Every structure is written in C-alpha cells, then in structure tokens.
Amino acid sequence: MHRFQLSQQMIVSVIFVLLFAGLSLLLPGFANTENLLTLLQNVAILGILGLGMAVIVIGRGVDLSMIASLAIPVALTLQLADAGHSTALAIIAGLALSALFGAANGWLIAYAEVPPLFVTLASGLFLAGLGQAFLFSTEAVVWPEPLQFLSAIGRGRLAGIPNSIWIFALVAVAVHAFLSRLTAGVFTYSMGDNPMAARLAGIPVRIMVIVQYVSSALIATLAGFVMAASVGSMSTRIYNSTWIYDVILVVVLGGIGLSGGRGSVTNVLIGTLLIGTLLNGLTILDVSFPVQNLIKGFVLLAAIMADTVLNPRNEETAQQGDI
Amino acid sequence: MTHEPTQPVVSLRQAVVRYGGSAAIDGIDFDLRAGEVHALLGENGAGKSTLTKVMAGVVHLSEGEMLVDGAPVSPSTPKDALALGIAMVFQETSLVPTMTVAQNLYLGQERAFNRLRGINIAAQQFLQSLNFDVNPTVTVAMLGAAKRQMVEIARAVLHNVRVIIFDEPTATLTPEEKQHFFKLVKNLKARGVSVIFISHALEEALMIADRITVLRDARHVLTEATGRLDRETIIKAMIGRDLSQSFYGHRRGDTDAVRPEGRRLLSVQNLRMAGVVKNTSFSVFAGQVTGVFGLVGAGRTETFKVVAGALKRNFLHGGEVVLNGRPVRYRTPAPAIRDGIAYITEDRKVEGFFETMTPPRNIHVGKLARSWRSQPLAPKREERQLGETWRTALNIKAVSGDVKVIELSGGNQQKVVIAKSLVQDPDLIIFDEPTRGVDVGAIAEIHEIINRLADAGKGVVVISSYLPEILALSDRILVARQGKIVEEFSAGEADEKKIMYAAIH
C-alpha cells in the first residue's frame, strides 16, 4: 500500500514538474517571479478549501457544502458590520454560524446516520438559500469600512509575498499539525481506514465526525474572508458555481484516496500546485473558459480513475453512500 | 425408505479444496442418488459448505474430480452448475428484492419485449402446479423468509434442475414454516429431484433425510441410511476426533489445575436483543477462563457484543448487565472500554485492525482511544515505544518496522488486534473465535496469552466453535443454543459429548 501511494504522489509530482518545465520553456511570460506569485495567489483560496476537504476525505466523508460555508457566514459578517454593529459581534456571528452549520452537518452524519454526500448536498443548498432569500438584500455584499483593519488578510504583501499565500501556508501548517500530531488526527485516519474497527476500539467516532465537519466549515469560512478581502466583496451567488468540484479535484489529484484513511497535507499542496500551473498556463495561452472547464473535467475524471485503481475501496468496510 | 443403489446423479471422488495452506475438505468421496434427500452434518468448519459449493460451481476443486451422471465435469461458475442441473439455495437469498415474484422467476429469461401480464399468468400457473401459495405480483421485499425460500425453490424447479442444495434452510423459519418447508422437500423428491440439506438441527435431518453424511475436520466420517442411525451415533461421529494427532491433547483439569472462581465480574440477567439473544442469564468471574461454546446462530457473539456496547439490547425488557456490582447500559463501545471491558472481534479484517497502518500505530490507536480525554497529543515516540513493548510481549513478527498490518500473517494480525485491546488495560477480556484463520504455531501462543491473562486475575471469556479449544482453555464452560446460555459445566465434569448434546437442538 505504501508503495502504491508513493507512486501516485510521484506520478502527480512528475506531471507537475514536466508541465512546469514545458510551460517555462514554451511560454515567455510564465517563469518569472511575478507570474509565479500570481499563479499561487490564484489558487491560494482553492488550496485552503482543499485542506479543509482533505480532513473530511481522510475521515471517509465528503463535504459538498464548503462553498456555502465560504460565502454565507462571511456575507453575514460583512452585512452586520456594514449595518453598524460592532465588528467583534459581526465576526463572532459569522464564525458561530459557520461552526453551527458544521456541527449540524456532523450531527446529521453521525447521529442521524445519513450519508455525508446527501447531508452536505442538502445542507449546502439550505444555507445558500437561507442567505440568498432572507439574510442579504443584494447579491454581493461589499467589504464595509469598519472591517478595513481586517482586509490585510486578502490584500497586500509581507516580505514580497501576497498575504493570501501566507494564509494558505499557515492553514497548511495547522492542518498538518492536526493530522500528524494530535490524537484527533490519528482518530481521523482510523475512521477513514475502518469505521467499524474505530468504533469498536472505543474511538468517540460521532464526536470526531462533528469535529471534522466543524473544522471544514471554519476553514471554508476563513477562505471566504480571504477571498472577500481580496476582491472587496462577497458574492452570495458563488454557491451556484461549480467550484466545489475544483476542490474535490485538488484533493483527488494530489492523491488523497476517496476511500479514506490515506494521504496528507503534502498531497493537497501537490494537487493545488498542479491545478494552479495548469490553469495559469491555459490562461496565458488564452484558452477560453469553457475549454478550461473541459480540460478540468477530463483531469478530474482521470484522477478519480487513477484513485480507483491505486486506492481501491475496501468492499468489506464500505458503506452505502460512500463515494 | 431403501433405495436401489443406482447410478449417482452427482459424485465427488477424492475431493480436496485448499485455502492457503489448510484444507477445507480433504479427500472426500460423496455420492448423491437420484431422488434422495441427503443430509450433511458436522460442526462449524467441518467442510459442509465447501463440499456443496464445489458442486454448485462457487468453489473449485484443488484435487480430485466431480462426476455428473458418471461423466467428469468441472463447473467453474454457478451458471455452469445450473446448466448441469445443480442449484444452490443460499442462506442469504439471491432474489432481487425490488422485483415481483414473477419477474424474479423469469429473471435472465426475458425476451426483448416482455408482457408483464404474460409472465404473471405463467408464474401463477407454475406456482400453482407446485402447490406454492405465493402471489406472483408481489415484490419479493414484501415476503417473509419462508416465502422467499419458496420462490428460490420455484426458480430452481423452473430451470429443470435435478439437484437442489440447501444451506441451513430452516435457520430463519418459524416452526409452522419449517413444516411447510419439509412438505416442499417431499414434493421435490416426488418429482425426482435430489436434495442436499445442510443443517445443525439433528432432529430435522433424522426426520426428512433418506441418507446422512457426517463430516469432521474436512474429512468424511460416515454415510448411512437414516434408518440405521440414531442421535447417539451421529453425535459420536461429529465429535470423535483422534486427539492424539492434535496439540489440543489435554483438557484443562487433566494437566493443570482448574482455576477457582474469583469475584463476580459480570452478571447478565434476562438479556434480550432483537430475536437473536433470547432471555439469557450467566455470570463471568475474575481469575479464570470462561469458555462459551455454541453452533452458528446460538447468539454468542451478539450476547457479548451487547455486554461490550457494540450492540444495543432491547430497549424494553432488555434485561440487565451488572459489571462489578453496578448495572450498566452502553450505547457505544467507548464507555464499556473505559469501564475495562475489551471485546476482541471474530472478524479482524472487518472490525479489528486498521489495514493501512503499521502494527505500532494500530496499538497506539487502541491506547489513544482509552486515554484521549487526558491526552490531546499523539507523539510518534509513544507509538514506537508501544510497538516495541507489545512486539516483545506477544512475539509479533513483522518483516520490518513500517510494514502494514494487512501484509502480516493471520496469527500476527490477530496478535496486533489483541495488543490493541490489551493496551487499554481491561479487566474483562472477551475473545471471539481468537484462533480463527491463525496458523498452528500462533494458536499455541494465543492460548498462552489467554492463560496468562486469567492467571493475572483478569476475567477472560473465550467464544469458540471448536470444542477442543474450549476444553483446552476453559475453567468453566457455558453452552449457548438458540440465543440462550442453556448449560454450564466446570472443566472437571465437561466432555465433548455432554457439551455437544447441550449445543444441538
């Protein structure tokens, strides 16, 4: 198994290096520092979302509601701050909504025992609909004056590197520490490897599911803050995009098996870099957006096929609704 | 009931099937005559299922040959076997639950355009000709176990089979349904169909079979007309091992002292769970090994999974579980583990170990599952130390430090699962089939571990379907039958015959 996983990571790394070298040689504007920073900046938010998704997927789940937790809690914070409430209250309200939402996801999966695919599909729709129908009067909520002090998380640079890249790096370090140093991280791998054995061993499986979905919701909300700060507003229509598939693409492409229990932060970083490079190259080549989608779809399909071959799901521990 | 010894419909000659190193059946000769009902008896693991699966094309012979009407054949799939006229009705039925009875009957024989009315009428006529009271337009999911079985039989007859194999057909039936089933078997026989009937229920076999074959430890013991057999002879044939060839030569009490009962660790009163555990009561004492024997379906695993919190007893009238004088009711295994109960599963691959992890990490997970409340960090150093400690303590042989559990031998996997539980420092350790799929050398070592735990004052329960294992390990023996502990023996008074008598209904 170990050798297999290494090989998937290696295949993707080799593809990345080849692609990078090819683009550097062929495209004049590609291999300069400024373009590479732009490349990274463009995928930083996707990468943060991928890190949140990685925690879930390693625990043998999936969170399709991440885009909703990216948009709605952030928009709530922006709107409250704009309406004159204290910034602390606004931020706490956004984070609380996000945490509550993640806990509800986890509760439905752990206690009501509905497969995560369906829970998060429905809950994402619910949260997005709730926001669009009742909370916000406009489609885009602008970054309000009282929150200017926070806008540095999405704008500006530190030591010549855009701040959003720094945030991506910080989240990567935090998620890595969670997965490899904390007891909760060991439990996450155990649950993904064999949920029944995890339960029988005495792992608090249900609590852990809630912890995982709360953390993915909070990570998504953090990504939302970074995004809103960088563009100056939060569009609540973003939920209607196909972005969540990009997040799954990053995770699967990097080699985190959808069958759970395998992979690490490294895999997300590789997946993110590969997608970033690909999209950047296509943009420089002036490939149209629909054609980019076509290529992404093809890559996602290839990655999932490779995943199915390299990380076969264990039929004996598989459950209905697993992806 | 005597039959002329005509040409057998199906026969096996010197049949051998090996899984890995061990033989599931070893040099068996078997004849099935036309129009006879032939019962196959034997303990769990005697080779009954394997023998019939060979005929049904599910399992393939390693050596020997299979003859149909005297001509050698080797069916490689159930479909091949069906073409030869052999069908097997499995314990889990192979019907499509969302389709109607009629659709199931004609499954695989549909034409491009099916008239539903047409197949309904045909099915109705066909079922009536068999005297089966089943409505062909009902979906199979709506039917009970007995009616599903009828549909399976009807489908087999529809395919013009000459041999039908039943694996434990009566296990899920009520008494009235059983009577009906026996009538069906007679009906089949009258049509000239041969029936093979695997069962644990001796009385049923004596009642409906023309001939009985007993298997034991993968070998053929006897085949005889039912009229010349009685209960006594059959039980003797089922258990009469030549123990001199096995290292289970002794029973506890012959060579070593029987351990006295310590304090009462666990007391279970009137436990009930979902029709599988039926009003059972027993106790487990510290400082000795309590063996639990029973045949498949006796509810042993379920009983002890309730004790360990892996299953829930009935909400109402579920009975009582008292641990150390305190009534307990667990919803999940975690609190049971905190109270010192360890359940070591019979199926280590499905719910025992974490296959992508190394042995030390598996053991570390066990430790963390007990101590996570006070231990937020999981240091790698602790993992290595635990791995090293338990590798030495239980003699776990791993090829190298970072080899995955799945790549170890069965015995070493089992030791890892045991270590994963023992690291939680339990007081009551329940071993469910601790030596299933384990090589001979490791069996002795695992028995040694079990004895050491009892000597150290722990309460140890060993659930096993293998009588010699029960006899070799237990200071006290409980016998389960149909969801209930029905007998209790001390090591001194128990023998194979008494236990088997208690276990068979």
Write the layout of secondary structure elements.
The complex is a heterodimer of chains A (323) and B (505).
Chain A: H1 2-26, H2 33-58, H3 66-82, H4 87-110, H5 116-135, E1 140-142, E2 157-158, E3 161-162, H6 163-181, H7 183-193, H8 195-200, H9 205-231, E4 233-235, H10 243-254, H11 265-284, H12 289-310
Antiparallel strand pairs in A: 1-4, 2-3
Chain B: E1 10-19, E2 22-32, E3 37-41, H1 48-55, E4 63-68, E5 71-73, H2 78-83, E6 86-89, H3 101-105, H4 116-129, H5 145-158, E7 163-167, H6 175-190, E8 194-198, H7 202-208, E9 211-216, E10 219-225, H8 231-239, E11 264-273, E12 277-285, E13 288-293, H9 300-307, E14 320-323, E15 326-328, H10 333-338, E16 341-344, H11 348-351, H12 359-371, H13 380-394, H14 410-422, E17 428-432, H15 440-455, E18 459-464, H16 467-473, E19 476-481, E20 484-490, H17 496-503
Parallel strand pairs in B: 3-8, 3-9, 6-7, 7-8, 13-18, 13-19, 16-17, 17-18
Antiparallel strand pairs in B: 1-2, 1-4, 4-5, 9-10, 11-12, 11-14, 14-15, 19-20
GO molecular function (chain B): ATP binding; ATP hydrolysis activity
Keywords (chain B): ATP-binding, Nucleotide-binding, Repeat, Sugar transport, Transport
Pfam family, one (chain B): ABC_tran
Summarize the structure.
The complex is a heterodimer of chains A (about 325) and B (about 500). Chain A contains twelve helices and four strands; from the N terminus they run αααααβββααααβααα. Chain A is mainly α and about 325 residues long.
